[in-house]
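PROTEIN DESIGN WORKSHEET
SECTION A - STRUCTURE
LENGTH: 467
TOKENS:
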């Protein structure tokens, strides 16, 4: 990568040098001609305006314009009479050719609509010069304008030399050779330094990312240098931290599930051996224990399957219009029957019929899981309150409240996360498998429903969702 960056910088510098030479040397003559032509045109326009004020005003303006713009200027009346002239540099084409040639230039301007521009060589008019050619005098730029003003027709002839341009070119070439050499040396050193400064932190981040891909979650990214690389390093550090946390919670989940699997399997195996080996133990009570533990084992497997399907998106929603009040009332009543004789109290508070569009089966599962969670942590009063009320923006809000131990504030953001467990020391739930909240999160996320939890240690928790 460092070599590619170096060659990219080198190509950029060479392109910059090429453009510099192109504009300063090869295109200098064209730019000079265009600039001089524009300068002569604007000067002629101003002098035509001054002629309308009188010949004295024209003569003064002509002399000033000639000095300021390094131009040789002559102004004539329509009959060819000279009004004013100014020869600033010598070697002027206007003052070196005969009257017949000046007349020819004037006629060309009239034929071209009032203006004529030409770049000519004095050598082409040598026979018409009144004075011999001076050393170093070559091309000239001639502009002729014939205009009709309030004071009559005015003929303006402007002349500018191009001889100094060659000297300027030679000077620029010498300077550019020196500057280009220095620029190449400095640019080469800078390109090497920048390519190393850019590629080194990226290489470090890449090496650390490979370690992360192999499962080394303790790796830390330290890009250094530029802000974007630092931000990338921070993002990867956060990802590594989250992966490490996920891996830790996954290991805890495996340990918890293994415990939950081992317990009913041990019970089933033990009771079956007892009923086989001990006469009289094959009775309904022992068979019920086996059935209960089998049901517990089946529930655990089903929860793992449900969680996997929900998080993978394999289950599509069967949306329909559902009376949420009826659904909650039926679920609470079933829990009353299921937990009858165990000291639990179920309270249902509602405000009447509540029509929502949802997947009845999945939302029923959500309510079952939330009530089951509340039963597991109901507290000493063993009371679970299910509440239906108005939510925000025309939604219905369902709340399940318990008066148990509550959840610490630092654990609240993670309570719905998969593999997360508030109590790190495993304890067997009254019902359920400990995966209920993860399933709740997946189903409600698929419904695009708002959900959350409020809790206070020693007071209890309120889980809620809105449809």
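SECTION B - SEQUENCE
RESIDUE ASSIGNMENT:
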């Amino acid at each position: 990568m460092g070599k590619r960056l170096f060659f990219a910088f080198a190509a950029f510098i060479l392109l910059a040098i090429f453009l510099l030479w192109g504009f300063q040397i090869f295109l200098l003559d064209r730019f000079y001609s265009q600039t001089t032509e524009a300068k002569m045109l604007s000067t002629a326009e101003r002098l035509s305006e001054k002629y309308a004020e009188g010949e004295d005003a024209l003569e003064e303006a002509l002399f000033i314009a000639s000095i300021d713009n390094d131009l040789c200027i002559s102004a004539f009346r329509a009959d060819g009479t000279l009004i004013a002239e100014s020869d600033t540099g010598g070697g002027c084409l206007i003052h070196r050719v005969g009257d017949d040639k000046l007349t020819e230039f004037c006629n060309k301007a009239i034929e071209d609509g009032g203006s004529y521009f030409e770049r000519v060589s004095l050598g082409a008019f040598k026979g018409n010069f009144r004075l011999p050619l001076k050393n170093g005098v070559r091309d000239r730029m001639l502009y002729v304008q014939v205009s009709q003003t309030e004071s009559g027709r005015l003929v303006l002839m402007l002349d500018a030399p191009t001889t100094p341009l060659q000297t300027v070119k030679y000077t620029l070439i010498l300077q550019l050779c020196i500057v280009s050499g220095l620029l190449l040396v400095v640019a080469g050193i800078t390109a090497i330094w920048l390519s190393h400064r850019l590629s080194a932190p990226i290489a470090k981040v890449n090496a650390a990312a490979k370690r992360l891909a192999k499962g080394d979650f303790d790796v830390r990214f330290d890009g250094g240098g530029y802000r974007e690389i630092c931000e990338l390093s921070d993002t990867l550090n956060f990802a590594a931290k989250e992966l490490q946390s996920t891996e830790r919670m996954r290991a805890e989940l495996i340990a918890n599930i293994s415990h939950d699997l081992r317990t009913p399997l041990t019970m089933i195996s033990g009771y079956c051996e007892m009923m086989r080996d001990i006469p009289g133990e094959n009775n309904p009570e022992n068979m019920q224990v086996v059935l209960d533990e089998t049901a517990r084992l089946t529930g655990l497997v089903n929860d793992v399957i449900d969680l996997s399907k929900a998080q993978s998106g394999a289950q599509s929603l069967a949306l329909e219009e559902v009376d949420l009040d009826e659904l909650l009332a039926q679920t609470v009543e079933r829990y009353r029957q299921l937990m009858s004789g165990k000291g639990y109290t179920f309270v249902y508070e509602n405000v009447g019929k509540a029509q929502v569009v949802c997947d009845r089966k999945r939302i029923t599962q959500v309510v079952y899981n939330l009530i089951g969670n509340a039963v597991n942590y109901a507290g000493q009063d063993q009371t679970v309150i299910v509440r239906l009320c108005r939510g925000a923006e025309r939604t219905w809000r369902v709340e399940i409240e318990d008066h148990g131990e509550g959840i610490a504030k630092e654990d609240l953001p993670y309570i719905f996360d998969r593999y997360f467990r508030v109590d790190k020391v495993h304890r067997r739930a009254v019902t359920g498998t400990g995966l209920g909240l993860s399933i709740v999160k997946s189903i409600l996320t698929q419904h695009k429903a708002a959900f959350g939890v409020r809790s206070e240690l020693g007071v209890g928790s309120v889980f809620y969702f809105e449809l």
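SECTION C - NOTES
Residues 163-213 form the longest helix (51 residues).
The CA atoms of residues 138 and 199 lie 56 Å apart.
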